[in-house]
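Q: I have 180 residues here and want to know how they pack in 3D. Can you give me a structure?
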Amino acid sequence: MKARVRRYPGIPGRVFPELKFRDGDVIRKTRAPLPEESWTEFVRRGGGPENAQHFSSLVARLGLRPIVLVRYRREAWMSLWDEYARVSIDFEVACKPANGWTYEIPGSWRPVDHPVWTQTQESICVLELKWADVAPRWMAELVGALDLNRQSFSKYCYSMRTLGEQHRIDERRSTARWVS
């Protein structure tokens, strides 16, 4: 499970607490819009739509807190023919350490998709193909025509690696829990 709070440039005044679950190749997300000016109150105290309440209860029960801010530019495309088929391209991925429940953090953004970190010749982009049940034929043809290879890229994990000198792993609790 991954818990995050997202903002979208095209949707001003709203933030989206989101829970992302992975089961093999299947990704499931739940989220709810909250007002940008008061979202921290909903997250800390509960209330709001059902999905926001679920997020809030996990924050309280698991002691979740912001660790890192991640930003990137996204180019997104939706199919006009398929019920749910989307292509997104994320690039210029950058991060900085979080400091509480706010997006307004001073300091510079650090590139995550830098060739040194990704062991590539150039800065990378993250291409995601998303569909509901069966991948549309045009997506399979696109993968073949571009000779694409499937590879995992977690913006969060690469961000934590980039900030590695500012964080340490708490081995007593879990190798997946980062503390500052």
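Q: Anything worth noting?
A: The first helix runs from residue 39 to 45. The first strand starts at residue 2 and ends at 6.
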